[in-house]
């Protein structure tokens, strides 16, 4: 049995909650100001997710979120009219969406793997 299936769905629920917190931080950053505290919060949440979900694709997406967030929060959007912050924000949300899609696929796989024996047992009755 793979390590991914050995985990309960609590890891997926926790990762989903942390992902939602990242989205809330990004939405609160609409003003475009440099904010080291928000950046640190995102990095900590990404690290928590990386250590919780044993899936390389999910881990890669969270690394992308951390890297792009680092660049986004280094730019003071109010200082200029650059399109870079808009581009970085889109990259972050794209990575978060890809992460969410993979998380749902992992959850579905686990449910079907764990549900299969119960379904087979019911058929034999």
Helix and strand arrangement:
Blueprint: H1 3-6, H2 10-28, H3 36-52, H4 56-74, H5 84-124
TL;DR?
The protein is an all-alpha fold. It has helices at 3-6, 10-28, 36-52, 56-74, 84-124.
Q: What is the residue-averaged pLDDT?
A: 83
Question: What would the principal axes of the Cα set say about the shape?
Answer: elongated
Tell me the number of helical segments per DSSP (H or I, 4 or more residues long): 5
Q: How widely separated are the two ends? A: 27 Å
Count all strands and give the number.
0
Following the backbone from N to C, one meets helices and strands in this order, namely HHHHH
Count of spatially separate domains: 1
**Which percent range fits the helix content?**
over 70%
Taking pLDDT < 50 over at least 5 consecutive residues as the criterion, the unreliable ranges are 1-7, 116-125
| Rg, Cα atoms, Å | 18 Å
Largest sheet: none
């Amino acid at each position: 049995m793979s390590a991914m299936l050995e985990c309960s769905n609590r890891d997926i629920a926790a990762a989903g909650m942390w992902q939602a917190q990242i989205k809330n931080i990004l939405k609160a950053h609409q003003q475009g100001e440099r904010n080291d505290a928000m950046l640190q919060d995102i990095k900590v949440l990404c690290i928590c997710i990386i250590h919780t979900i044993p899936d390389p694709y999910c881990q890669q997406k969270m690394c992308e979120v951390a890297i792009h967030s680092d660049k986004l929060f280094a730019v003071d959007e109010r200082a200029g009219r650059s399109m870079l912050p808009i581009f970085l924000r889109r990259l972050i949300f794209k990575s978060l969406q890809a992460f969410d899609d993979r998380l749902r696929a992992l959850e579905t796989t686990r449910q079907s793997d764990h549900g299969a024996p119960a379904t087979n047992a019911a058929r034999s009755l």
